[in-house]
Amino acid sequence: MSATPPIYLDYNATTPVAPEVADAMLPFLREQFGNPSSSHPHGRAAARAVAEARDEVAALIGARGGEIVFTGCATEANNLALLGVAQALGDTRRHLVVSAVEHPAVMAPARRLEAQGWRLTVVPVDGHGRVSPDDVVRALRPDTALVSVMHANNEVGTIQPVAEIAALAHDRGILVHTDAAQSAGKVEVDVDRLGVDLLTLAGHKFYATKGVGALYVRAGTPIRSVLFGADQEHGLRPGTENVPAIVGLGAAARLARERLPEAGQGLRRLRDRLHQALAQGVPGLALNGHPEARLPNTLHVSFPGVSGRALLDAAAEVVAASVGSACHSEHDAVSGVLAAMSVDAGRARGAVRLSVGMMTTDDEIERAAAGLVSAWRRLAGR
Amino acid sequence: MSATPPIYLDYNATTPVAPEVADAMLPFLREQFGNPSSSHPHGRAAARAVAEARDEVAALIGARGGEIVFTGCATEANNLALLGVAQALGDTRRHLVVSAVEHPAVMAPARRLEAQGWRLTVVPVDGHGRVSPDDVVRALRPDTALVSVMHANNEVGTIQPVAEIAALAHDRGILVHTDAAQSAGKVEVDVDRLGVDLLTLAGHKFYATKGVGALYVRAGTPIRSVLFGADQEHGLRPGTENVPAIVGLGAAARLARERLPEAGQGLRRLRDRLHQALAQGVPGLALNGHPEARLPNTLHVSFPGVSGRALLDAAAEVVAASVGSACHSEHDAVSGVLAAMSVDAGRARGAVRLSVGMMTTDDEIERAAAGLVSAWRRLAGR
């Protein structure tokens, strides 16, 4: 990294680890090294730490500790949700419904099931990236096993009507999963208010570390493991528990719970200030995603007459952001999310995702806006 | 944990994180938090760190960086090896060979394939827990896809003749995997000398942290992903990379490479000293596992006339060890490994696994031996 790193506005790609989280993890990288499956004191101390973290994560989302399965990442949690329910129900139900704007971590296992003979319905989104519950209902069939609609989109930040969708699916006896990787810590995530059976969390999207995720599994939900080994995590995820990262996830969940809803308000204020400054400096700047039902930290905008990639390159010394999902940063192709929203090619080309976070300051917002406006003027010849 | 923790002799369950490893990880829990898939400086710094760790891990086992796939744990690496090769070859080859003493992380995916219609041959072991290459050859069939025989056993420490097995399997065009979770850092692990196509490493068995493993995949080996998402790790393991733990694995690999073969000699000296002291104090103490072809840190012994569980309970204030694999610590049933070795019931009942490590001292060995002998005398009425 250069001596003065650019201003980080890519919190949707990954967040820094909160100092409180790193501090909580450190003892488990030093003296507290036991294997939670060992019955001696070293092991029991590790098992207790994992149990406490499980309760903290559960508390963040209104669940019970026994309903939390720790995984190696959110992708694994999404795979467990889709493929694990498919394993449990596949003898009688072989139809799956997802939205058109799911992350690859949901879309890819869905396509995998399709390749294995499942029927897959991909429900469209409107111009704001929002799924219509009516469209989901129309997609449901007698053999539908699961509906998976993300809580909030990772690119444009649009929040989906998960609670309405879940109620309609449950009326028909169908399970509901939501990928809440982007929403936890930014907006309220409550499994009962959402009414979901399965919910995915990603540590490194809310100030815990990479290498840990969690799947909420409502008690009684039919699901089977997708990896095979010993019987950790209620038999749903084999392998020695990642104790330091799990402890960190617990600490991050506690922080998120304590800081909401003020955190959301603070993020929204910074995000909106950035939006205003850019809109003033860039005539024709267009907002993508839902104007209100949107993550408070996410500003996905299209700069007119330039490519988003070229703009970020031109502003690279000032701002670190992305043109879309980090998973696709190397490709200049139009984002699948924008395509699903029927965003026209020119607007899609000029799109940039700016996402703020807990460490973002007013000063950073001002400097970032100035840098982006200046880069746009140079590129657009204004 | 109590104020004075007992002497840790359970390094085969999990190791402490080496101070050098924790130090290497810390910057990636603090300022270096980028997502390796991001194209800005934060992301590129993370990608570089992952690439350097990949080269370090490759160097430990005589491989190239491009042949290393980082996973969330060794269990996941074993699942990827077995299920991933099965995905790639299953149209034409549907037979698998494993040894009778594999860890659940190999045995369970093997049983999973069997449940899906694969034929599974479980090759027996002798009284020392060793597989005969002749038995493996007899098990091979024209439709055998893969042979998976562990490098060293996690309970008794017996080292398998993997190189001989691999040569015989390769003569017949059959792929070979070995689970080297227990051997890395203790004995030489070289993919070319072993001649294997796939090899599993576990971070937390050689002084890296829990939550990271690796699968070596020899260039050209047919294999497919078992989890589905974005295209990290050559498309073989989706999900944002666990950068801090991967950096730690790289540091642990470098340490292991620098310290071998002296490390093995030091471990053997401590282990043999413990064995001598116990044999002097406990007439009839029996060694389990191979007398020579055995991990230098592992002492698996049966105490006469007592149960291993009761002995460890009686010595709990002095020694932290286990009666077998950590995965089974809660059960008092006879270990599957000892059963496969045809160890008689009384001897199996008295078995204890004592495993030393890099932090073990001569003083600890003396005190541990005294505590175990004293506990045995009390229990056995001697």
Structural overview:
Two copies of one chain form a homodimer. Chain A has 382 residues and is an alpha/beta fold. Chain A has two domains: 7-16 and 260-380, Aspartate Aminotransferase, domain 1; 19-259, Type I PLP-dependent aspartate aminotransferase-like (Major domain) (Aspartate Aminotransferase, domain 2). The first copy, chain A, has 13 helices and twelve strands. The first copy, chain A, has helices at 19-29, 41-60, 74-89, 104-115, 133-139, 162-171, 191-194, 243-259, 262-281, 308-314, 336-340, 345-349, 362-380; strands spanning 7-8, 68-71, 95-99, 119-123, 144-148, 175-179, 198-202, 213-217, 286-288, 298-302, 319-320, 351-355. In chain A, the strands form three sheets. Chain A has a seven-stranded mixed sheet, sandwiched between helices. In chain A, helix 2 (41-60) packs parallel to helix 8 and helix 10 (308-314) crosses helix 13. Chain A is globular, with a radius of gyration of 21 Å. Chain A starts with 6 loop residues before the first strand and ends with a helix. At the A-B interface, helix 1, helix 2, helix 3, helix 4 and helix 8 of A face helix 1, helix 2, helix 3, helix 4 and helix 8 of B.
